[in-house]
Amino acid sequence: MSDRSWAEPYKIKMVEPLRMTSRAEREQAIAEAGYNTFLLKSEDVYIDLLTDSGTNAMSDRQWAGMMLGDEAYAGSRNFYHLEQVCREYYGFKHVVPTHQGRGAEHMLSQLCINPGDSVPGNMYFTTTKLHQELAGGRFVDVIIDEAHDPDSEYPFKGNVDPNKLRALIAEVGAERVAYLSLETNVNMAGGQPCSLANIREVCTLCHEHGIKVFLDATRAIENAWFIKQREAEYGDRSVADILREMCSHADGATISAKKDGLVNIGGLLLLNEDELAERARNMVVVYEGLHTYGGLAGRDMEAMAIGITESAQDDHIRARVGQVEYLAERLLAADIPIVRPTGGHGVFINAAKFLPHIPREQFPAQALTAALYVDSGVRAMERGAVSSGRDIETGENVYPSLELIRLTIPRRVYTQAHMDVTAESIIALHENREQIVGLRFTYEPEQLRFFQARFEPAEGTRIFRAKAKQAAGV
Q: Is the pTM of this model over 0.85?
């Protein structure tokens, strides 16, 4: 970014009114939701930073494209348009649509993992790891050590550590490594990218051992932007060119199109190998729908094809990441502990450092999300111990090195003023952070507990101690 002001590469054509609730209403809402922001009603939320998944604003061209939906059960023309766009921007030969990203994760895991296989990856993602485990695999983290340090300024904290990968191959044998699960713009690390040099190196290493590499390319376009900014030899290349080169080293990809694809629903399994693609097409018929719709309406596939094209434009991604950086800069100026450098899809607050008085077993990140909602109506999400779940062997809580809350910025939805409101709320909470209390479970689902778990304050009946309300004059 230059020192001059910049503006979004679009103008607003339609708005959705928002309702600001009172603090008393929010206290009641969060209590009824079991202090889990996933269980809040959206009508009770003022600024929704829970996720960028399916929450993006579609363009006039995408909405117009939806009117061209071919809802034929087989052979929809929208599928063939989507196929052409995916081949153009991602470069993979075969395109299998799914209802969303986890549909693609499920199929890839079932197709490629044998019970007892190891699946190395650059930090886990919740649904990806679960599907790998349900297929009988064992996830092994091979991300670089810098990824676990929220204060490290290393520019490519999503990189795989080749030595960790070699050690795993030596330990279990290449034939027991299902594939390398290589996530671009690693979500749980704070939206941190991989370098193209690292992608090339680890793909070469895997292929030398006969191991396939499958990207989680959900946010690959954001990753391509960081390569353009941080890897000197790519500064003059377009994001679309970099994206294609990233994908050229891998054997396939899973994609949740609800992020980079700028749509509200949809996913993709992209493959190069003919035999594996044929098995995937057979499988998608069982679990998702015919191979030319994969659980999607024709209009959804058309919107996705247009959205991918728009998302890969440099002007779009410059503004998208720029808004994330704007919020991060406001928080850094106030000494709020966030993951650095700034990631691609959101700002991640180091909740353990923000709330040092709350022990890890009382889930400081979950507590901070609840407190933020009560203070301002901003909905964020936890990315820490609650998301990590329990050890599948011991049943004990897993306490990851990163205990974060994620302020996820939907694409083309909010203005800088919304970011200001969010920043001011977080700064105010930090000034009175001692008044925030921890949480304990009242209900815990067996799998992906962060979606539906319920909590209560570990002391008293509210997320703030009584004197916090007095200090706020409420």
A: yes
